[in-house]
Structures are given as structure tokens and as C-alpha cells.
Amino acid sequence: MTKKEKFAKTWLYFRTGYSYYFVFLVSGLNALMIAYFVVILGTTCESGKSLTEDGDILCLIRYLFPHFGLFVLFTVAVGLPALVAIGRWHYTRNQYGTHAYVEWETNPTLYKLVGHDQLTFEIMKELIREIKERNILNSEKLKRLNSLEEKVDHLLKGGTTK
Questions:
Q1: Which three-class secondary structure state does DSSP give residue 71?
Q2: 8 A C-beta contact, residue 55 and residue 43
Q3: pLDDT tens digits, one per residue of 86-127
Q4: Per-residue DSSP letter, 115
Q5: What is the CA radius of gyration of the chain?
Q6: How many helices (H) and strands (E) are present in the chain, helices listed first?
Q7: Which pTM does this prediction carry?
């Protein structure tokens, strides 16, 4: 690997780590801190007010979460499952096809390979048939080739490799 390739790979790993993990954690913590310290603790709670008056819901939240740790624990306990459910919905019901299409369209390697899999597998099947017709394989290799042919047939019918 050349120095340029090594640098490019390291730069990619840095950008990925920074944008996906570091910034994600810092922005999440920032949002929690602003919500708690500025909004909740910044609210002046006066005794004798009813819950219908402005600002009293924040006083109730301040009463329920007297410490930042409790606020974080509650937010994580409620938010984590909710965000996992939203993320699952996003990928299974909403945008995954769009993500995959854009990736396929913009990645030259995928653009050349994916989408032509029908043709590729048909060529593989033809080569397998040709090898079998020549009758030059021992029984073990023929068994492996038959197994491979079954997998190719399965993929051609829309199956997966799992």
C-alpha cells in the first residue's frame, strides 16, 4: 500500500469516526445539557401557581428530575427504544430503497456489478454446464460444483446467500 493510499484510508476512517460517533455523542450530550440546565433549571418556579399557568410544566419536570443524571437516565431509557424503532422504520418501510439506489448510482463499482447480476449468474450457469459436460472432475469436485449450481439457481430466483 502506497503512502497516498494509506493516508486516504486513514482520512476516511477519521472522517467516519468523527462524523458518525464523536459528533453524534457530543451533539446528543449538548442537547441534553441545554434542555436540562438552560430550559428546566433556568425556569423560576413560584409556589402557589396552578399547572395551567405558563412555565409550570417546566416546574413539574424540574421537580421530577432534580439531578441531571436522572434526566439523562430517563431520556436514554425512553429515547433509545423510540429511536431504534424509528431507525428500523426508516430502513424497512421508508428510505432504505432510496439509500441503496443512490449508493448504486454513485458508486462506479456497484454500478458496473449490481443490476447485471441476472446476466452474471446466467453466464456462471453456462460455465458450470460446460465444465460438467467435459466430465473432467472427480466426484468431490463435481459435488461441489453441483452445490454451487444450486446456489446460483437460488440467487436467480431472488433468494439470498444467507
A1: helix
A2: yes
A3: 988 888 887 777 877 777 777 766 655 555 667 777 888 888
A4: T
A5: 29
A6: 8, 0
A7: 0.55
pLDDT band at 28 (very low <50, low <70, confident <90, very high): very high
> CA 57, 62, 68, 73: dihedral to nearest 10 degrees?
-60
Cell of 162: 444467507
Q: Taking all residues of the chain, what is their mean pLDDT, rounded to a whole number?
A: 82
Measured in whole angstroms, the distance separating CA 19 from the mean position of its chain's CA atoms is 14
Task: Mark 53-89 as b/e (b = at least 16 C-beta within 10 Å).
Answer: eeeeebbeebeebeeeeebbeebeeeeeeeeeeeeee
Structural domain boundaries of the chain?
3-111, 116-156
Cell 430502513 belongs to which residue?
Answer: 91
The residue to which cell 459435488 is assigned: 143
Integer Cα distance of 122 and 126 in angstroms:
6
Q: Which amino acid makes up residue 97?
A: G
CA distance 51 to 2: 67
Amino acid (one-letter) located at 32? L
Q: What does the block give as the cell for 45?
A: 418556579
Q: Which three cell numbers stand for residue 130?
A: 460446460
